[in-house]
Amino acid sequence: MLKHMVVLGGGTAGTLMANRMVRLLPHGWRVTVVDRDDAHVYQPGLLFLPFGDAKPEQLVRPRRRLFERGIEVKLEGLDRVDAQAKTVRLLDGSTLKYDVLIIATGSRITPEETQGLTGEGWRATAFDFYTLAGATALGHALERFEGGRLLINIAELPIKCPVAPLEFAFLADDYFKRKGRREKVELVYVTPLEGAFTKPKASAVLGDLLARKGVKVVGDFSVSQVDGGKRVLSSFDGRSEPYDLLVSIPLHAGDEAMKRSGLGDESGWVPTDKHTLQSKAHPDIFVLGDATDLPASKAGAVAHFQGDVLAENLLRHIEGRPVEPSFDGHANCFIETGAGKAMLIDFNYETEPLPGRFPLPGVGPFTLLEESAVNHWGKKGFEWLYWNGLVTGKDLPFEPHLALAGKWR
After folding, report:
1. Buried b / exposed e along 147-174 (16+ C-beta atoms within 10 A)
2. CA distance 163 to 192
3. What is the percentage of the chain residues whose pLDDT exceeds 90?
4. Separation CA 127–CA 285 (nearest Å)
């Protein structure tokens, strides 16, 4: 009898894992992917959409076309998982039996969870850029914005691509300079963190860059509500920040089906061993990408590094061997800083971003914790690598584990 690997989610993590495993699994296994629709969005491109550097139709491709032959794709909503019976129930009432389950259900924004955010002013004076609709509407608003106070607010962590709000601030500074309106726009970065980023060294560098670009940072701000009529953002400690235009990075959550299944915590994140990527509760379930509760960035590069480790652990598990605790939390991110430049950071659970060169020690061509035009073109070129390498599940010339060679302590 054929054995069955079911992948929940056809985003970055689920697509690359399905494509990789259909090539690696031994004879007698089949792979099924479940997702609710046929639209795969290149999420890093959403950052560029409000500034006119990308178009919605360029960022979306049919999911079915991204999968290898032999992978069955079910375009249907997920109802729940019964981990005891090892079944997946879909919203159309059908059921899939699995031998191994990969959860790659990603994350979603929940702006409605912040009091007042989706009330008066939503998509008029308050926007997100983490969705196609939000980023498109924000682009129209930026075109019309002649001046005033523009707030960029992170409601709470974790979020998808933690550096994207910083990138938005840098790109907004550049955008308004090019439009000849920068002196009329006050840019304010409002964050629940003490500074610009979670890691101290990177936070200092990025905070200095924000200051040099004239972006004010308001830290330790835990948003309690938004008054869209008065255009005021309030915090739980009683502070308030007025705005003319609000760019919100809303609260994020895991898939609701994970909560219904008893597999997710109160926010829907799935408790996952941070080194093996195995579910903490069920040995036949593995998790990667944004769906996990890991203290790692929710970003495509992380999903790729996790995929390298998870593929090996899935094969070990199928063969009855112990899984290896080999994922170190490796993450790297390009950070657009405006004016055709970008920065790159490379870090993991234990090591924070350090200066240096990547990926070749002493050579690069990319600079770490330092702006360069080469980094910018690396960021822009990643889109080609994403469609033609990353989601295909192919081996890429980047190690899944952090290398200290080429980094300066």
Report:
1. eebbbbbbbbebbbbbbbbbbbbbbbbb
2. 14
3. 92
4. 36
Three-state SS at 400: coil
Instruction: Give the CA angle between residues 113, 115, 118 to the nearest 5°.
Output: 75
User: What CATH code is assigned to 111-251?
Assistant: 3.50.50.60
3-108+253-318 against 111-251: fold identical = yes
Name 74's Cβ contacts closer than 8 Å, sequence gap at least 6.
Answer: 32, 33, 34, 35, 90, 96
Q: So where are the chain's domains?
A: 3-108+253-318, 111-251, 331-390
Q: What is the pLDDT of residue 375?
A: 97
Residue 337 in contact with residue 207, Cβ under 8 Å? no
Q: Judging by beta carbons within 10 Å of its beta carbon (0-12, 13-18, 19+), is residue 358 exposed, middle or buried?
A: buried
Q: What is the pLDDT averaged over residues 238-255?
A: 98
Strand, helix or coil for residue 96: strand
pLDDT at 232: 98
Distance CA 343, CA 108 (A): 27
Q: What is the mean pLDDT of residues 234-247?
A: 98
CATH 3.50.50.60 fits 3-108+253-318, yes or no: yes
Cβ within 8 Å of residue 208, ≥6 positions away: none
Residue 104 tokens read as: 């790659």
Average pLDDT over residues 179-207: 92
Concatenating the DSSP letter of every residue in 104-134 gives ----EE-GGGSBTTTSTTBTTTEE-SSSHHH
Which pTM was predicted?
Answer: 0.96
| Per-residue tokens: 138 | 């924000």
Torsion-angle region of 86 (φ positive above 0: left; ψ -120 to 50: alpha; else: beta)? left
Residue 376 backbone dihedrals phi, psi, to 5 degrees: -60, -45
Percent of the chain residues topping a pLDDT of 70: 100
